[in-house]
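I am still getting used to backbone structure tokens and would like to learn alongside you. Please make up or recall a protein chain and show it to me in full. Would you write everything just below, so we can both look at the same thing?
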Amino acid sequence: MASAREAAEAEFRRFDTDGDGLLTAAEIRKANEALGGQGASESEIEAFIKSADRDGDGTIGLEEFVGLVGHGRHEKA
């Protein structure tokens, strides 16, 4: 069984469509669209980016992503 970190890293790589090691808002929106009606709202996407972007560069790096989702904190109760 994969650890939470390994699962988060795999998701990050799947969402990082250009392979630059950073998730942009556009990449997150594209991943969300792939979920169809099951995905997050635009305001939830904005909140996710804001909460994960620790260095304030407007993108989410691997460690930022793992720090947020690698422990299940992104999931709704």
The domain at 4-69 is CATH 1.10.238.10 (Recoverin; domain 1). Confidence is low (pLDDT under 50) at residues 73-77. The CA atoms of residues 21 and 61 lie 6 Å apart. The chain has one domain: 4-69.
